[in-house]
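Comment on both lines for my students:
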Amino acid sequence: MIARYDALGARFESQGEKLTAFLKPADTFEVEQEEVGGDTAVQAAQQFCGRLNAIEGAWMTRAKVFSLPGGESLAAISSAHMIAGAGTRNIVLDEIHDILDHGVPQAAASTLYNEYSLAERDCLVGPRGVQLIGHWRDWYREQPMMKAPPTGAPLLWGNGIRVIQNFTMPGRVRDKVVALADSMKVTSFLVYLSIFSIAMARWSGMERFPLRVLGDKRGALNLSNTVGLMFCADALEISVPARAEFESVLRGILAKYDSRAVAAHSESAFLGAACGDAGDRVALS
């Protein structure tokens, strides 16, 4: 798999203020091995996957096989988010299971990430890209600035340390969300997104503000199993009028989200069709 998917073999070097991508030879990839007890295997795998994958490290993808009693084993794979997202994780896991069960991958081959990157780069420097970039610059310019109520500090996306707040959701709450989503014929994700949007509106005192929602650029059939960093951020304009009913807010967000999804799918299909012109160039953008 490392030899087949160029994105998994990517590494980066800082050259002044520029970060340049290179490909590691696949035959230098090593799978770590360790014998562990059956009761500690999962914890050991979690610790392995929790280790930092340095951007300028020797490898940004690491793998380890834990040998368990009774001839069983547990495999752990970890890739830096710079080169892979959750979509890539799912593709890689499915393919490993296919190889173990059938000897060969079962899914249809997809466009390589490097080919997609080159098509995307060519698009962005052309007329269509100029129009796209201009549209989003104008869109962002028109958005209001959200500020933290206690301090008035502007909430700007930029460099810094990411803070993650994990929490456990009671099963009864999750069940109610699923039931509500089913009754409205929407996804649970949309219910959570609406709840979050309303919470942000109440916290900030703003009825209109921008929000970014992570999406997937595998919108064309020949991109469905592309391994690499294929996630994107769909920018939405959230509207939460005062005293608006929950379903009204949800339907408004759904309309905006669907319009973004259609545009993203169209762009992915266009780039997917353009991938055949990539030739032998190397981008890994």
